[in-house]
Specification:
86% of the residues lie in helices and 0% in strands. It is mostly helical. The chain has one domain.
Amino acid sequence: MDQQTAIDIGRQALWTSLMIGSPVLLSGLVVGLLIGLFQALTQIQEQTIAFVPKIVAMVLALSITLPWLITYLVQYSTDLIGGIPGRF
């Protein structure tokens, strides 16, 4: 295996982890921003108010995107394992 192949495998692994984590993280970010804006507008400074809506939104986003995430991860794994004979 040469250096370029190792760099390509690492880049593809980072991109895959970004794609798999982004739906859940983005939903938590958006809900957190909305709750923070609501708290700033109403001057409610309770830290636990944002916890439950963020968890619910993240679980909902995960349940909606789970089939796509599994397909993406299986495709990545298939490509990685299938490319072993040509890379070494």
